[in-house]
Design brief:
By secondary structure, this protein is mainly β. It has one helix and 15 strands, in the order H-E-E-E-E-E-E-E-E-E-E-E-E-E-E-E.
Length: about 180
């Protein structure tokens, strides 16, 4: 890695970026038929709430957390699955509660903007029996919350440790 790129990564990772768990989930959590679906280009999309700010997890463009720039509310995750390197394993979903998840950083969240979240482990795990995709460290500890239907995040000390995507009823052809 060249020195210029290395220094820019160090500067980016020094920016304060936290994930804050809300007290309870708004009623909209179950009010709509939110679900994952597969596009023809192997993009894994979610018909979730509106969001206009992107947090690229692990510095990887493949996994994008969509956030509402006005409130910081995390609304869903979308990703690109073609040629995704995964470890095939058995995954156990952590016990979770439905709660809101907020992304907070020192700088304002500008509509149409985004950032890279480097503290996140850039690894993917797939349980083909249960149809669960985990991005990050599945052995993470912390508080597990289902911030949208079929999306569980594990938060420890305001840091995102992993995200579980439950793809058991995905429409379209899964490519994992």
């Amino acid at each position: 890695m060249n020195i210029k790129k290395e220094n820019s990564i160090k500067n980016v990772t020094k920016s304060k970026m936290d994930f804050v768990i809300g007290d309870s989930k708004y009623c909209r959590h179950n009010a709509y038929d939110y679900h994952f679906y597969m596009a023809d280009d192997t993009s894994l999309l979610y018909n979730g709430m509106y969001g206009d700010y992107s947090v690229l997890l692990g510095g990887n463009w493949r996994f994008e957390l969509i956030v509402d720039s006005l409130t910081g509310l995390c609304t869903y995750i979308q990703s690109f699955l073609e040629k995704l390197e995964v470890t095939y394993t058995t995954l156990e979903l952590p016990k979770s509660k439905a709660k809101d998840l907020y992304f907070v950083r020192e700088n304002p969240l500008n509509p149409g903007g985004g950032c890279h979240y480097f503290p996140f482990a850039n690894k993917a795990f797939w349980d083909s029996q249960r149809k669960i995709l985990c991005y990050g460290n599945p052995n993470s500890t912390g508080e597990a919350i289902e911030f949208m239907p079929k999306i569980i995040a594990v938060i420890e000390k305001k840091q995102l440790m992993c995200v579980y995507l439950i793809l058991d009823d995905i429409s379209g052809k899964a490519v994992l």
